[in-house]
Amino acid sequence: MAVRRGTAARQMQQQMPDPMEQMMESDEPTRKRPWEKVDAEGNKIKRKKVPGAKNIRIRKHVQPKNALSCLNELVPGVVYNTEQEGGVGQQFGVSVTVEGKTFRGFGSSKQIARQNAAEAAIISFVKPPVPKAVPGEESKMEDKTPWATLASFAMYKLFNDWKDGRIGTCHTQTPAFPGVSPQNLQGYFNQMVGGPQTMTASPPNAASSNAISQYLGTPAAGVIKSAESAKNANTPAVAKPAKQVPDNASAMHPVMVLHQMRPGIQYNTNKTTGEENRPYFYVSVNIDGQEFTGEGPNLKKAKFNLARDAIYALFGVESCFELPA
């Protein structure tokens, strides 16, 4: 019996393949993938990096677009309704309904009002961040915020700011709003969409406000301290004036130079009707005990003329900056 068992064991060992032999047999050249290139010796040829290729791809997908174009991408064929005709002392009012919610914009022209209404609607597309997945598990939630569209609109606004000479944070160009909480952020955005004279009937959207706040993250310590001080004092937080006039002040936008040197100034604005019932603006401001005035067919031009005279009288800066037509 022992002899038979030994013989059977030897036969089983002979029938079982050797692992090393299996590895040697399987060590055959792998099949080349269709997109791979090899040299004469069969070595893989690595693809050369094309300088600027990544930048070209980004530029292809992210182009500056205004609010109307961006909203049309998100909601093709959206319809704008004129709710208020403009005229003397009254702005145009336009509304747009998206996903059952109505957003309104106002402006000195119907086109501006439509742009403002579209921007108010775009804000509603910002959704809360997707929660991080548990380690080892895939997240089943989809990020529904249209980042490419928002990036296109952000570039459009940024380039327009640069074109108009608004460079840097420029917090001093508009009065601070103490007590603006994340819950009121949507209303704050809607109020500022069309500039200081904008009215809005669109109710604040707490969901969008909270989503935006989550993406912005925790403000820097200095920002928190400044906001708390402004809230406690119930007065706008004013930036410190620059210690000296910028070296390139003559080439900068006069309004920007003026606000850097004298932050927190408040303009007095008066709107009248000129020739052919066209609006005409007068602005004035008292700086260091001196009264400065400016006028123009729009508020931007009036402030430009005022600031140009003010920086020359106060700081000896003769501006050569020209407003875009």
UniProtKB/TrEMBL annotation:
<dbReference type="Pfam" id="PF00035">
    <property type="entry name" value="dsrm"/>
</dbReference>
<dbReference type="InterPro" id="IPR014720">
    <property type="entry name" value="dsRBD_dom"/>
</dbReference>
<dbReference type="GO" id="GO:0003725">
    <property type="term" value="F:double-stranded RNA binding"/>
</dbReference>
<dbReference type="GO" id="GO:0005634">
    <property type="term" value="C:nucleus"/>
</dbReference>
<dbReference type="GO" id="GO:0035197">
    <property type="term" value="F:siRNA binding"/>
</dbReference>
<dbReference type="GO" id="GO:0030422">
    <property type="term" value="P:siRNA processing"/>
</dbReference>
<feature type="compositionally biased region" description="Low complexity">
    <location>
        <begin position="11"/>
        <end position="23"/>
    </location>
</feature>
<keyword id="KW-0694">RNA-binding</keyword>
<feature type="domain" description="DRBM">
    <location>
        <begin position="90"/>
        <end position="127"/>
    </location>
</feature>
<feature type="domain" description="DRBM">
    <location>
        <begin position="247"/>
        <end position="316"/>
    </location>
</feature>
<dbReference type="GO" id="GO:0070920">
    <property type="term" value="P:regulation of regulatory ncRNA processing"/>
</dbReference>
<feature type="region of interest" description="Disordered">
    <location>
        <begin position="1"/>
        <end position="34"/>
    </location>
</feature>
<dbReference type="InterPro" id="IPR051247">
    <property type="entry name" value="RLC_Component"/>
</dbReference>
<protein>
    <recommendedName>
        <fullName>DRBM domain-containing protein</fullName>
    </recommendedName>
</protein>
<dbReference type="GO" id="GO:0070578">
    <property type="term" value="C:RISC-loading complex"/>
</dbReference>
<dbReference type="GO" id="GO:0016442">
    <property type="term" value="C:RISC complex"/>
</dbReference>
<dbReference type="GO" id="GO:0005737">
    <property type="term" value="C:cytoplasm"/>
</dbReference>
